[in-house]
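Hi everyone,

Forwarding the result from last night's run.
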Amino acid sequence: MKFADIVRLFGDKAWFDFEMVLLLSGEAPACVHTALYRLRESGKIIELRRGLFSLAEPWRHRGLGTGAAPAFAASLSSAIYPPSYLSGRWVLKRCGALESAIQSQDSLPEFSAVTARPAKVFENSFGRYSYATLPRDLLFGAMTELAGSERFRLAFPEKALLDLCFLEGGEWDKARFEAEGFGTGLRAGRLNLERLGAFAARAGRPRLARA
């Protein structure tokens, strides 16, 4: 398959995988592997994880360009390790409940997510994607957002806080919240306390209810 065909077929998609190219090209698997390897080495496609790719700029289009870069990078999270949804520190920083540390220009954006699958970490040119394992009964409280034409799932901020408290363990009191950088954001009313209480009750974990 020629690169022009890949752009035509996947230019408006956040990602595509080896199986898609194999099916649409009708070529032998070895030929597809070689073609994708050459495109990756030339910088025309980006490997998100083994067998999963995204077109590099300027071939990515239809609302998936640089202007939507943070949301686009976030939208890749669910595809990199499904099923999962963004949660924890990334969601809390996004909504302003948690103070963001100053990052150097060379550091990769950090995306935190949760899943029922084993914990994993993936790095690519869009960022570092960390997936923590939650019990299945705690995988609730997520919503869907759009990044260009792509949908992605993320926790409500209140559920992201509970996920963080559960995953990092221990007791969470006022001093610990402030030490972690939550003081200003929580005082500014970034979280819906009624929703937080409902999620804590549904979780059924006394430690989360105390937090």
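The first helix runs from residue 3 to 10.

Cheers,
N.
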